[in-house]
Amino acid sequence: MIHTNVLSDLKNRTAQSQKALKIGLFGFGCVGQGIFELLEQSKGINAEIIKIGVKNQDKVRSGVGGFKSVQPLLTYNAAEILYNPEIDVVIELIDDAEAAYEMVTTAMREGKAVISANKKLIANHLEELLALQKEFDVPFLYEASVCGSIPIIRNLEEYYNTDFLSSVETICNGTTNYILTKTAMEGLTYNQALKQAKDLGFAESDPTLDVQGFDAKFKLIILVLHAFGVILKPKKVLNYGIHNLNIADTIFATENGFKIKSLAKAYKVGEELVAYVAPHFVGSSHEFYNVNNEFNAVQVAAQFAEKQTFIGKGAGSHPTASAVLSDLAALRYGYQYEYKNIGQELTYNPKLIHKVYFRYRNPSDLMGLNFLNITEHHQGHELSFIIGEISLENLIEVNLNEREGVFLSFF
């Protein structure tokens, strides 16, 4: 027999799910337009966009994908969305993290549910955003902020919360994965592959956040919260990118049976947590070896479930929009993240030692690097490199992203 309280709860949730959600949308670029199209096509979500906040008043927006004109929905005044009592849900999809912060926090204080894809905003303000959710009892969902169409945050929240996670490893930046695929498989130079990525819309006009590992670091910080219940400060986490990659590094990888992949990793060592973003030499037995182009992947290792791998498109209009719509569907049933893993007694430790390959030009490029247990040191006219061990803490202090002509990869 089903308990009366359970039946009552089911009735309340069903009634709530039948109510049409009224949406205020900030941003009408690639993903915003994808949301608009999918909502027009979908019959499974009872929701309607009633206002679209945009910045550029000169841009002509006659319609999207053959659907109705969006012009009557547009507003250039954020207050028309944030303080509109008719709007239940604010969806934030803009590039400017600071402007997004004002929109998201104001909407939460106004009692509105919020959906965001802005990983930089979330990673930089996690503690405050957690506190606002609790204070105002509003849902704040952001599945689209990590790995596009791959439903990893919800899985970490709902499936793995009773298991003992040991690691999360991911390819979570489509731009870098595309560049590394083209340099390895087609022999393109870094600059040639980057240009292709820009032409295809995978890379921004300024790709710094992608190619120097910042974007992946923001995503990793979000995953660490849901996987291990730990809030990491971005400045304390190593991110090193692929912007100094050259043909010598690709040849070295190929001759040794590797591909280079930019990985974001977090794992436990006893009661300590390690997290960082950097290029890695990946062998053919690794699950990510054949994850190519703009595809993303996440591998979760747990005590009982062991290793499970998710693969899907990490960027683009419809893949990212599908993650936003998934959050929207969850809101219909009052879903909120519970952050069940917060409270684990884990200490973040950036001092652990890792084996790396470091290619350089001049002896001055080694300044500040404290290598331990050097197993190979090759010096030549065409290629000079060290294979040895070094701590994450040392690499954070040195900040190799600011050094030209060098390249580092983890084994």
SSE order and pairing:
Layout (H helix, E strand, L loop, with lengths): L3 H15 L2 E6 L3 H12 L5 E7 L20 E2 L3 H4 L6 E4 L4 H13 L3 E4 L2 H6 L1 H11 L3 E2 L10 H7 L6 E7 L2 H12 L4 H10 L8 H4 L2 H15 L9 E2 L7 H9 L2 E12 L2 E12 L11 E8 L3 E8 L3 H15 L15 E2 L4 E8 L11 E7 L5 E8 H7 L8 E4 L1
Parallel strand pairs: 1-2, 1-4, 2-3, 4-5, 5-6, 8-10, 10-13
Antiparallel strand pairs: 7-9, 7-11, 9-10, 11-12, 14-16, 14-17, 15-16
Helix pairs in contact: 2-13, 7-11, 8-9
What would your notes on this structure say?
With 411 residues, the protein is α/β, with parallel strands linked by helices. 34% of the residues lie in helices and 25% in strands. The chain is built from 14 helices and 17 strands. The strands form three sheets. Strands 7, 8, 9, 10, 11, 12 and 13 form a seven-stranded mixed sheet that branches. α2 packs across α13 and α8 packs across α9 (190-199). It starts with a helix and ends with a strand. The model has no long low-confidence stretch (mean pLDDT 91).
